[in-house]
Amino acid sequence: MTLFKTLVTTHKNQFKALAIVIVLVLGGVGLLSYSNSSFFQRFLGEVNPLLAISLSGVLGFLSLSFLLSKEWFTIHKKYPLKKVLPYTGLTLLFASVAILIDINIVYPADMNIPFPESLLFYPVIAFLVEIIFHVLPLTLLLIVATSVFRKSDCGKLVLPCILIVALFEPTYQIIFMDNYPIWATGAVWINLFLFNITQLFIFKKYGFLSMYVLRLVYYLFWHIIWGALRLELLFLIALDFQLDFFF
Do residues 168 and 193 touch, judged by C-beta distance below 8 A? Predict the structure, then answer.
């Protein structure tokens, strides 16, 4: 307990930033649940969303505290904004690839949460995704790796652990793509794998909050902006193709 208090005191600003994010995310869950509780059902089933996000917040807090105590990763680092701009550009590229795939295969009409509820929903889901697919498995994997390879420097174990963790989300996503062409499944997997690697390197270099922000940028363009426009634009693209074919 004393070690934990020392950790929190030493890294007070980092824990404060994490606490603010968790409170905002829980607030988003509360507002969405009051508005329409069905938003979370497709992702969480019958699990209470407030319970699921609260649990992810606790697991995230504990995992990040452990990673911070070992000096393997941080919650947040101060850095010039220009240092992360290239990573933001990469994230926009990954979102653009996702949009191009959608234009060619067309995902279901109800794929996205409608605007303006999407402005609350996707930051909440982004937090859950980061904890479930990145923070928690990376923490567990590093614990196992450092226990098995005790004589190895942790720095040498981080890269293989990152590569392994980066496999989880893209593999999970393509499980639900059995009715799509193989090229689309492969493109989605590669695109998400590269995005996950980018995020995890940002996590290592600049902290959890920077990784979370990259996810927010990706969701902003892929789910929120494109999600609000896609049906109209896809209809116009299909109509233009039909007219070109006819004439």
Answer: no
